[in-house]
Amino acid sequence: MKKIHVFDTTLRDGEQSPGVNLTTDEKVKIALQLEKLGVDRIEAGFPASSPGEIISVKEISRQVKNASIAALSRANKKDIEAAREAIKGAATPCLHIVLATSPIHRKYKLNMTKEQVLETAESAIRYGKKYFDNLEFSLEDASRTEIDFIYEVVHMAIKSGATVVNLPDTVGYASPETFGTMFKKIKENVPGVENILLSTHCHNDLGMATANTLAAIYNGVDQIEGTINGIGERAGNTAIEEVALALEMRSDIYQAKTDIVLNEIYPTSRMVSKLTGMMVQRNKAIVGDHAFSHESGIHQDGMLKEPTTYEIIRPEMVGVSSSTLVLGKHSGRHALKAKVRHLGYNLSQQELNELFQKFKALIDKKRYVLDEDIRLLIDEQYVNEESMFTLSDLSIAYPGNESEITVALTDRHQQTVQTTTRGNGAIDALFQAIDQSINTEFILEDYKIQSNSAGKDAIGEVHVILDNDGKKYRGRGFDTDIIKASAKAYLAAVNRFYEEQGKQPIESNAYKFSI
Ligand SMILES: CC(=O)SCCNC(=O)CCNC(=O)[C@H](O)C(C)(C)COP(=O)(O)OP(=O)(O)OC[C@H]1O[C@@H](n2cnc3c(N)ncnc32)[C@H](O)[C@@H]1OP(=O)(O)O
Ligand SMILES: CC(C)C(=O)C(=O)O
Questions:
Q1: How far is the CA of 79 from the centre of ligand 1 (A)?
Q2: Are 203 and 237 in contact (CB under 8 A)?
Q3: Which atom of ligand 2 is nearest to the CA of 98?
Q4: Using one digit for the tens of pLDDT, what is the confidence trace for 73-129?
Q5: ipTM of the predicted structure?
Q6: CA torsion angle for 239, 244, 245, 246 (degrees, to 10)?
Q7: Which residues bind Mn(2+) (predicted)?
Q8: At 238, is the secondary structure helix, strand, or coil?
Q9: Residue ranges covered by each domain of the chain
Q10: What 3-state class would DSSP assign to 493?
Q11: Does 463 count as an annotated binding residue?
């Protein structure tokens, strides 16, 4: 297996993401984690950009012991001196000089001819080599540069002392076919290329940064540049974690490997996301929240039978604790059964079928069904088994300043009784309506409500204690609608009352009908 060197530029190109501005402490924290991750070189910053940047790069150079530390510089003495000042204390410093080579950049940005580009680059490399053994030269916008001029610049850089020559796809314009061919041609046409590390650095403007990086590896590059989570200028850079995993999983194609410690990937990704404030796209490969989540019934069934049916990477491999079966709209009974078992319940097939119907009804109201929701559905199922009354309809209106509740209760004989009452607030009206429907009065001794799962569509849990003739009856109800949860809790207590007393409800004056 060929070793692919990893040059991490999270702290330089990654920090070029709009809105990202890391403090020295944050940069050091990330650098130490990158070292733990096993990257070979950390581009700590662009020292000429500000005095604060020099301080950060200096501190990283002081604290990081194993990884080499690079600093970026334009092709001029002032920038090189700033870089020198910043990384001179590093164990293995590397000066990174960049100069654009493409016709567009030469004409519009640099106002230089090809000859001037060659001369400027050569004099900068030779100046840098006085102080640095390790020197990388990057041909900015290489993918839009004439191939013959690339040969000339790469050859000049090697002769002048560059130890790494990097060909970036600065604007994310390359395609895997053209980009791979460029490296193949360089290897075939530039003398001395075998004595240096040939490197690539891709941007993701067309969503092809990882594909282009892999094409470069396939065609002989020795070093890849990228960032954690793919952050960076505009649409970002190649995500290092994606390349490391692609090489790991498809060694049959690439026959190459990085030294990345795979199970440090997820902790690194989290740290970078937290400190930069750049949220990771949920469906992002390897490190996105959904990368190891399975939602649909057929997939979940496959996962439960054999994870390799739907997962090519084991989550533990990259430091994610486990795969998740997310109970959602498309889930089936196998996943629900596994979840119920995991929560410590042992339901019969019939109970599971009933729970499944309730679960499907709930998912129409709620985006995610959480563990707590399932617990509540099961608990509610147990409560309802013995019910004298169940709630069959409930509506609420606010005529004038009052709350008006209409409640319909159905008893064991499928008789439904409907009552409309006004009250001092919805809960007062509701409880009066229930009392009138069953022709019994209770004193509401306690009423508590709490949200029992997360989000605006969380399930509300209501607890009530009712008093009838000094005896207390407790009830609990759950629903995404808190008025309904309150009705269910009240009815649960009422049902207890009837069961305990062995009583039949007294005929009420409410409107009665059969269903
Ligand atoms: C492809 C990349 O990602 S390269 C890295 C990009 N990162 C950054 O630019 C972040 C740090 N940059 C900065 O803080 C500032 O741009 C500084 C301090 C470096 C320079 O600021 P200023 O001196 O005000 O110049 P400004 O950024 O406006 O313009 C860039 C100048 O550098 C020149 N330049 C651009 N690239 C290079 C290069 N590789 N080598 C030499 N000169 C260059 C431009 O032609 C322009 O020169 P001009 O003033 O003669 O027209
Ligand atoms: C400095 C170079 C490598 C760069 O960031 C680019 O070309 O995108």
A1: 10
A2: yes
A3: 1
A4: 999 999 999 999 999 999 999 999 999 999 999 999 999 999 999 999 999 999 999
A5: 0.97
A6: 90
A7: 13, 201, 203, 237
A8: coil
A9: 2-276, 293-382, 386-514
A10: helix
A11: no
Angle at 279 between CA 276 and CA 281, to 5 degrees: 145
Helix (H, G, I), strand (E, B) or coil at 346: coil
Q: How far apart are CA 69 and CA 87, in angstroms?
A: 7
Single pTM value for the model: 0.81
Query: Is the CATH code 3.20.20.70 the one for domain 2-276?
Result: yes
Protein residue whose Cα sits closest to atom 50 of ligand 1: 110
- Whole-number Å distance between alpha carbons of 272 and 289: 15
In the three-class reduction of DSSP (H, G, I as helix; E, B as strand; rest coil), residue 441 is classed as coil
Locate the ligand 1 atom nearest the alpha carbon of residue 99 and give its number: 39
> 386-514: which CATH number, 3.90.650.10, 3.40.50.720, 3.30.70.3040, 3.30.160.270?
3.30.160.270
Closest listed residue to residue 500, CA positions, set 386, 414, 405: 386
Q: Could you tell me the maximum CA-CA distance found in the chain, to the nearest angstrom?
A: 103
Q: At what angle do helices 147-160 and 114-129 cross, to 10 degrees?
A: 20
Q: What digits encode the pLDDT tens for the residues 413-471? A: 888 999 999 999 999 999 999 999 998 999 999 999 988 777 777 888 888 999 998 88
